[in-house]
Design goal:
With 217 residues, the chain is of the alpha/beta class. It has six helices and nine strands, in the order βββαβββααβααββα. A hairpin with a 5-residue loop joins β2 (16-21) and β3. The termini are far apart.
Length: 217
């Protein structure tokens, strides 16, 4: 069965965009949607004949309660949250930040989550039956693949729909991230708090082991 990698950039002020890439790194299709059910309708045909791996540029789920543990970078250790701190953010976001890969938009409790995150939560639920879902972070992908010529895409512009290309690059980056991860060149970060992990297109040369482990005390 053919494998297809799909990257999704999530927006609410303008339509979301997806990009479908095959095993050779060739762009197959792009498309736009505004609601989760529209994304399902656009992608279900691919799922009927292909094995899908989907990377969504949004948090998988919100916090169920304020985060207890904060990372102390200079000390390379976890500490308990101070009363003045809001407790937002998930383990995967803390780990990405600690490795200087990107600046996350910290995930809060569901009621405090902005509209684009709410749409992301819904996408993870709605698209679950189509294939394997991952959380991608294009900003971290750009950091890791800078000066790395190995990750490439072939784009036939006849497969690019004319609706605006501003967010298409992030969708392409999410698709590349999924492809590199599934093919064994990337890594998974976070997940110790049970709130989802972020996949990366490459392994970190010098990982900070302590931040990759969620406190269990």
């Amino acid at each position: 069965m053919k494998t297809v990698y799909i990257g999704i950039d999530v927006q609410v002020s303008r339509p979301c965009v997806f990009a479908a890439v095959d095993e050779t790194g060739t762009l197959l299709e792009t498309g736009w949607f505004e609601e989760a059910h529209e994304a399902f309708q656009a992608l279900e045909t691919w799922a009927e004949s292909c094995r899908l791996h989907l990377g969504i540029d949004a948090p998988r789920q919100p916090l169920s309660k304020p985060r207890k543990w904060y990372w102390n970078g200079p000390e390379k250790a976890w500490r308990e949250r101070k009363p003045s701190e809001k407790g937002v953010g998930r383990h995967c976001e803390v780990a990405v930040k600690a490795h200087n890969l990107a600046n996350p938009q910290w995930t809060p409790l569901r009621g405090a989550a902005p509209a684009w995150m709410q749409l992301g939560f819904e996408l993870f639920q709605t698209l679950e039956s189509l294939g394997t879902l991952y959380e991608a972070f294009p900003s971290a992908t750009y950091t890791m693949l800078h000066d790395d010529p190995a990750a490439k895409l072939t784009i036939d512009f006849s497969n690019v729909r004319k609706r605006g290309a501003g967010d298409l690059f992030d969708a392409l980056a999410a698709a590349v991230t999924v492809k590199e991860f599934v093919e064994g060149r990337g890594m998974e970060m976070g997940g110790g708090d049970g709130l989802g992990s972020i996949i990366l297109p490459r392994r970190i040369d010098r990982p900070i082991d302590a931040v990759l482990q969620w406190p269990n005390y």
